[in-house]
Structures are given as structure tokens and as C-alpha cells.
Amino acid sequence: MSTYLPTLKQLQYLVALREHGHFGRAAEACFVTQSTLSAGLRELESLIGITLVERTRRVVRFTPLGERITDKAIRVLREAEELSAMARAAGKPLSGDLRMGVIPTIAPFLLPRILPRIRADWPELKLYLREETSRSACESLHHGQVDCVLLALPYACGDVEGETLFDDRLFIAFPHDEGVDLPERVKADTIDESRLLLLEDGHCLKDHALAACNRPELRAEASMLGTSLHTLVQMVDNGLGVTMLPQMALDAGILGGTSIEARALDADSPSRRIALVWRKGSPREKDFRLLADVLRSASTRSSD
């Protein structure tokens, strides 16, 4: 076995450089100077005897072998993280650092309700949050940048395990003067696709809303303009169309100060499932299942 092995720090520098594509930004992400990161990577290249990164003034380009080694470095760093997690899991439950990714259509509505209860009940848990779209959050999970993800299903997040927390019903939101003749539950086939406002690509709520309606033409016709649910609400309040909102956003008061009305969507699958997922085989599985119980209980109590 070779005495000269890459250090975890060098592998972290390598992975950060590929993630950010820039020496300065990679150094900031690693909390070191650019010269320190650059020197660490040169030492790594000297150690293994190959060039991993082609450096020019304008671009950073990984060699084909550099790409393969970086992929392996991601797996090595993840295994190192899980080795440390095994030790933490043997101690007190829900204690120490835990990094959780949360999608934007959940974070501002659910977290303010549940975080105070988690802090009160589990004071030794240091929960670090990272808000990302579903795709980015799942990538962060598999790259070891977060330990678990709070997201909405169905969504293909790779080789993960998880627990469903609760169902989050979808509602149709529309200007007040348009709701006079609408029933308490609005059927999907009555939605005017030319006035439907949805989130931009990258937000899974858009796909959940379209799937609930089971109308393929909505994907092509809907005006997908909103960057956030709050933006969509302002557009609807100004008479620009109608949109779909989840129950948790309504419970959090997203319609406060508007004249918008909301009616439940009448469909075969009118809800999205809120779930906590983690990497399959994680040594902290017991912690995550306990956290799922805590989140489930806290969200239920908060809605009472």
C-alpha cells in the first residue's frame, strides 16, 4: 500500500473546483485562500503524477481522467462523512450537526412552524438548512453536501430511502370576482389553460399540479412565469390569471392582504406528499426516521 495518499482536504478542493468552476469561488466554499487551494491541488497532481486540471486565464477545464478521479473523490468524501456519522449515531439521538436540504415550496411555509418545536425538544441538534430546487437538493444529497432532504413526492431523487410526513392538498387560487359561480371544489377540466400561471421549470410543484389535473395540454399552454409562489400570488391578485397553491402555503397566510380566493382542486390525485429522504444505507438512518417522526408530529401540532 502506498504511503503517499491524497488527503481528504485535497479531495475537497478538487470537488469544490469542479462544482464552482472557478478557483476563487472554490476557495471561498472551502474557507481557504485561493493560493492555498491552488497549492493543495498542485500537491495532489504531483502526488499522483498526472494533470487533473488544465489552467488558463479564462477557464478551468478538467482532463478526462481528472473528471473520473473527481467522481471517485466525491464517493470517498461521502464515505468519510458516513464514517463520522456512524460515531455520531452511536451517541445521543438527534444531536450534533445535521444538514438538511429543503425545497422552496416547502421552506418558507413549513419551517417557521416546526423549527421552534425542534429547538425546544432537541436542543443538542444543530440543524443547518439549505434551500434548493428538488433537482439540486437531490444532487447535493448524493454528493454528500446535505444529509437529508425535505421535499415533495413523487420525484425521482435517485437511490434513497425516506418516510412520508403528510399529504399537502392543492388548491386553485383566483381573483375574488371570478369565484362567484365556482363550487367549493373546482374540477381540473374547468381550468382555463390560457390563464393558468405556474412556477418555472425546476420546481416540482409545477409537475405535481399538472399531474393532478391530468390534462397534458396544460403543460404546453400554461403561462409558466412565476419564480416563487409569492410572485404567483401577486400576479393572480392583479387579475393576470389563476394558479395552484398547496395547503401549507394557505395555512401560512400567503393570501394575507390580497383579495384572492382559493378552492380545493377536485381531481383523482389532488395532493403532493411531503417526505424526508436520505441516502440508502446511511448509518444515520435511525436519526432520520426519528427526525421524520419529529417533523410529522410538529407539523400536525402546529396545524391544530
UniProtKB/TrEMBL annotation:
<dbReference type="Pfam" id="PF03466">
    <property type="entry name" value="LysR_substrate"/>
</dbReference>
<dbReference type="InterPro" id="IPR036390">
    <property type="entry name" value="WH_DNA-bd_sf"/>
</dbReference>
<dbReference type="InterPro" id="IPR005119">
    <property type="entry name" value="LysR_subst-bd"/>
</dbReference>
<feature type="domain" description="HTH lysR-type">
    <location>
        <begin position="6"/>
        <end position="63"/>
    </location>
</feature>
<keyword id="KW-0804">Transcription</keyword>
<dbReference type="Pfam" id="PF00126">
    <property type="entry name" value="HTH_1"/>
</dbReference>
<keyword id="KW-0805">Transcription regulation</keyword>
<keyword id="KW-0238">DNA-binding</keyword>
<comment type="similarity">
    <text>Belongs to the LysR transcriptional regulatory family.</text>
</comment>
<dbReference type="InterPro" id="IPR036388">
    <property type="entry name" value="WH-like_DNA-bd_sf"/>
</dbReference>
<protein>
    <submittedName>
        <fullName>Hydrogen peroxide-inducible genes activator</fullName>
    </submittedName>
</protein>
<dbReference type="InterPro" id="IPR000847">
    <property type="entry name" value="LysR_HTH_N"/>
</dbReference>
